[in-house]
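FOLDING PROBLEM:
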Amino acid sequence: QVQLVESGGGLVQAGGSLRLSCAASGRSVSTYAMGWFRQAPGKERAFVATINWSGGGTVYADSVKGRFTISRDNAKNQVYLQMNSLKPEDTAVYYCAAREGISGSRWFYDYVYWGQGTQVTVSS
């Protein structure tokens, strides 16, 4: 059993930056692929980024390429999402997720464990 808790969300002006953290407990996620998803009101949960178990492989949604960076620190059992050049359309609840296995996935149904989400609001 793995528990995930996101933090770092908040209100930021367009063009600003936020760094989200995902703290894992219960089990080490050093051999888990991790992902970030987001969901805006009235919309489906959308893929943001994934990172494999070693941190050497990452995949990003087209909408965030060049602006967001996913990383992990397995020694601390944490995953991060650095978000730069934020836009109002980035406003959503951001969720951290984990899947058993070394490879990431852009599909939400491939992930076993989910955090509670953290709100990110970008003002114009």
User: Anything to note?
Assistant: The chain has no helices and eleven strands.
